[in-house]
Design goal:
This protein is of the alpha+beta class. The protein contains 20 helices and 13 strands. Helix 7 crosses helix 10. The longest helix is centred in the N-terminal third of the chain and has 17 residues.
């Protein structure tokens, strides 16, 4: 932390009140935001107090009150959410929100700007890069052209400025298509109904304008797919033992494991154009969304925040300060050498989408969390990516490995070869790699993801065959009571306690040794092949 920012964490003086140094520092903070960035006095800024954490926008009086009562949030010596970059330059895009521009009155509404901002959120605002100073980028990186994925931004941005009809100044092709798709979803209109509405609207347009607008629902989805928000629907076996995925599975009509049919049987009395799958998986590809983090100038700069977080505080506030993160960097220096490589976490859990109704159903979403970002950003919903939706009456159990295959294939590609990505902050193309650092589950979910049996006497993944669990003869249950004293220090008083634990029992033992990685790998390799699926259930 720089010397001129130490006042941020010296809020209380010797008598418990806010000292003069803190008041002077607050004035420096507001001078930076309101003067250096030339912000309107009535504008709202992000509140950096420890309670708000740079999430809500507040006026100056409220921010002052919060900072006096709660102090600054941890590890905020660099005011990244208020326009300060690593190079010390200001970026007003992230810092402020003008009260007038956020008004709901009609005179401040601009349809064209709204949809241009939607494109900026989905891709990098490359046009805004040219308005930055050349000193914001390293000299050797200025001039790189965006790759093919980033180039899609230009096509969609161009569509956001093309007027629809000679008499419409605000309505553009992009805004019109987005509005029609939103209306279809909001009112539950079928695809056939959408096509009929579009056909009627086409009659009101000139032949020239008709060439600009998607003519049906399929073309509209293809047009909007450039936003990178698409999904893939993959057929699965009804017994969860096989995924009709990849070159070897797409053409099959029966499961090679259990022999069940892939599609539902057709009703001879109905004319059906397409076969319907008996079970399916929804996959939202992770690679385009990771690339979008660098293609958007709002997030590209913060994707290397993990580099400086260790210097701001000795308290563990981010996974980048953990021993596991540091150990990984030592083992894989080539990966750690590029700070823009992405560290990920995987989280999953099951729930009943119908709440606590009598309907028995288990939906298992799989999320990916990006740990490169600051703590205030990486835990927000927009940076927690839904990648898989496994929806079945019963939970997938050990067969979750079958459904994880598309995600694992993408993660393997990101780890081994990487993907070309455009960094809008540095205006540079680079090869982005990624790795899966942790999994986040409850104990039953841990058993599904890892394959470990979390039921019975050997359910502890640390003690394993050296467990001290015992069977209750009358309760007919496995009990882990009094198994934890062995992990206490040898001189701890609880080891000699014979009344509050098992009666008359002293604890002199030591905890079981933890296996090294190679020993665990040898045990896994010695296991027989796992047969996925539930052939006995339909």
């Amino acid at each position: 932390m720089t010397d001129d920012r130490r006042w941020m964490y010296k809020r209380r003086g010797p008598h418990g009140d806010c000292g003069g140094e803190f008041f002077n520092g607050l004035q420096q903070f507001f001078d930076f935001v309101y003067s250096r960035l030339s912000v309107h006095p009535n504008s709202e800024i992000r509140c950096p107090c420890s309670k708000c954490g740079n999430l809500p926008y507040q006026n100056k009086a409220t921010v002052t009150e919060h900072l006096l009562n709660y102090g600054f949030m941890d590890a905020y010596s660099v005011w990244w959410a208020h326009g300060e970059t690593l190079s010390g330059n200001a970026d007003p895009w992230l810092a402020i929100r003008d009260v007038a521009s956020s008004s709901n009155t009609k005179e401040h509404v601009n349809v064209e700007d709204d949809f241009q901002h939607m494109v900026y959120d989905a891709f990098c605002p490359y046009e805004n890069i040219h308005h930055r100073n050349e000193t914001d980028f390293p000299a050797e990186t200025v001039g790189d052209e965006p790759n093919s994925h980033a180039q899609a931004f230009y096509d969609l941005l161009r569509a956001s400025t093309i007027p629809l009809g000679p008499s419409s100044n605000d309505q553009t092709v992009l805004s019109w298509v987005s509005y029609m798709l939103h209306t279809k979803t909001k009112n539950n209109i079928s695809g056939v109904g959408y096509n009929e509405i579009i056909h009627g609207c086409m009659q009101l347009l000139s032949p020239e304008d008709q060439q600009k607008v998607p003519r049906n629902f399929y073309e509209a989805k293809k047009y909007m797919r450039s936003l990178g928000l698409g999904y893939v629907k993959i057929d699965a076996c009804i017994n969860n033992c096989f995924l009709y995925y990849g070159d070897e599975g797409k053409s099959l009509t029966t499961c090679p494991v259990c022999g069940e049919d892939r599609y539902k049987r057709r009703n001879p009395a109905q004319t059906q154009k397409k076969d319907k799958s008996r079970n399916c998986l929804w996959y939202l590809p992770i690679i385009p969304r990771l690339q979008r983090l660098y293609m958007s100038h709002k997030t590209a700069e913060h994707m290397i925040w993990h580099l400086k977080c260790r210097a701001d505080s000795e308290v563990l506030i981010h996974p980048a300060q953990s021993a596991a993160w540091k150990h990984f960097n030592e083992v894989h220096p080539s990966f750690a050498r590029e700070p823009r490589n992405v560290h990920l976490g995987l989280a999953t859990d099951g729930f009943n989408p119908w709440g606590h109704s009598s309907t028995s159903y288990s939906c298992w979403p799989v999320f990916i969390v990006v740990y490169n970002l600051p703590p205030e950003m990486c835990m927000r919903p927009e940076f927690t990516f839904l990648t898989l939706v496994i929806s079945r009456p019963k939970n997938p159990g050990k067969n979750i490995d079958v459904f994880l295959r598309p995600l694992i294939d993408d993660l393997k590609q990101l780890w081994s070869s990487g993907v070309e990505t455009f960094d809008s902050f540095r205006k540079q193309n680079f090869t982005m790699r990624a790795m899966l650092m942790w999994t986040i589950t409850d104990f039953p979910g841990y058993g599904m993801v890892s394959g470990w049996n979390t039921h019975g006497r050997l359910s502890c993944p640390y003690c394993m065959e050296m467990t001290r669990a015992f069977y209750l003869q009358h309760g007919h249950k496995i009990s882990f009571f009094d198994c934890h004293r062995q992990f206490l220090p040898e001189s701890h008083s609880y080891r000699m306690d014979t009344t509050q634990f098992l009666k008359g029992r002293f604890e002199f033992g030591s905890p079981p040794p933890r296996l090294e990685g190679q020993a665990v790998r040898d045990r896994v390799d010695a296991l027989p092949d796992v047969l996925f699926g539930n052939p006995s259930t339909n």
